[in-house]
Amino acid sequence: MKIFTHEEFEPSQKTLKFILEFAHSYRVANINGRNEVYCLN
Fold this sequence. Notes:
Layout: H1 13-25, E1 26-31, E2 34-39
Antiparallel strand pairs: 1-2
């Protein structure tokens, strides 16, 4: 995974799209005191 430095302020559009898709697809629920990850797709 690429690490961004001060010289490179923004990730590419492809990276941003991936982050958004991941964030919108996965959720965490607290079930019986445990965090369970699930996918909405």
